TrEMBL record:
UniProt-annotated location(s): Cytoplasm
Known EC number: 2.7.1.15
Gene: rbsK
Family: Belongs to the carbohydrate kinase PfkB family. Ribokinase subfamily. Belongs to the carbohydrate kinase pfkB family.
Chief subcellular location: cytoplasm
List of residues binding substrate: N9, I10, D11, G37, K38, G39, L40, N41, E136, D243
Identification of the protein by name: Ribokinase
Length: 294
């Protein structure tokens, strides 16, 4: 199965003609509220892609927390390790413009309480096939979970988003690093994507750089080993595309798929997700991914 240690937020999404500048007020053309957070999105994506999935994260004792718990339960996700924090449930304020580009502000709230792994958390990480994490919870927790899972020989995956410098100890515990172009350049410390990607590929056995509508590039043992083209689709909202990719990829690997096949499965899942508004509502189920791939 797949275990995710990560964030959960309520996303408040406004459709706007363009992203407003400082001091500017715009009228939105639409307003909606969705479950979100990279951790939760990737958890839903892994579960819908067919993997038995466990989520380790935190929500508040509030209405938003109940909403997120219900979302997880609806997709048969194991929530027995979910923490209830005294802080408010995390919230993200998202604007999506006419070109499907977005601008986002996040209030972490309860996500700051995903700290100190319990014995039950450790037991879960020691028996999982795949551990998938992101960088929206405290970095120390990410580091600790990676170490526990790596020691137990789980496949440890990090989606290094939002971009942040990665400690050497964490890098040493990773089997797969997944980044978009922006994150690759920041963490790989170069404005040139090829240079940055090569830097990352020298640090982690497998690195995937997602390239938006161009698909993704796969690296293994320091060298680029292939590219997966994304199907041509009409994108309406790319929020959660990377999350869908990561969750579907983790599910495929947990199911025994080869590296390239898992990346292809994930590419089709992500392409489906950009064709509808919102992150969670647009995450496809396994049957839809397989149909798109056929
Ligand atoms: P992020 O969402 O993290 O910024 P990307 O923009 O690289 O990441 O998108 C992640 C994946 O989503 C891509 O590798 C691709 O498979 C898919 N994707 C994103 N945008 C499109 C698009 N316009 N058409 C088809 N697939 C897309």
């Amino acid at each position: 199965g797949v275990t995710i240690v990560g964030s959960a937020n309520i996303d408040i999404v406004y459709g706007v003609e363009r992203i407003p500048g400082p001091g500017e007020t715009l009228l939105a053309s639409s307003a909606a509220r969705y479950p979100g957070g990279k951790g939760l999105n990737q958890t839903v994506a892994a579960a819908r892609a067919g993997a038995p999935t466990t989520f380790i994260g935190a929500v508040g004792h509030d209405e938003f927390g109940e909403e997120l718990l219900a979302t997880l339960t609806d997709d048969q996700i194991d929530t027995s390790l979910l923490r209830r924090s005294t802080r408010a449930t995390g919230q993200a304020f998202i604007m999506v413009d006419a070109n499907a580009e977005n601008a986002i502000v996040v209030s972490p709230g309860a996500n700051a309480d995903v700290t100190a792994l319990t014995d039950s958390d450790r037991a879960c990480l020691q028996s999982t096939g795949v551990l998938l994490m992101q960088l929206e919870i405290p970095l120390d927790t990410v580091r600790e979970a990676a170490a526990v899972a790596h020691a137990a020989r789980a496949t440890v995956m990090l989606n290094a988003a939002p971009a942040h410098a990665l400690p050497a100890q964490l890098l040493a515990d990773l089997d797969v690093l997944i980044v978009n172009e922006h994150e690759a350049c920041l963490i790989g410390a170069s404005d040139d994507l090829a240079t940055a990607s090569a830097t990352l590929a020298a640090l982690v056995p497998r690195v995937i750089v997602t390239l938006g509508a161009a698909g993704c590039a796969l690296y293994e043992d320091g060298a680029e080993v292939g590219r997966v083209a994304a199907p041509r689709v009409a994108a309406v909202d790319t929020t959660g595309a990377g999350d869908t990719f990561c969750g579907a990829f983790a599910a495929a690997i947990s199911d025994g798929a080869a590296y390239g096949d898992a990346a292809e499965f994930a590419t089709h899942a992500a392409a489906l997700s950009v064709q509808a508004l919102g992150a969670v509502p647009s995450i496809p189920v396994r049957a839809a991914i397989e149909e798109a791939r056929a």
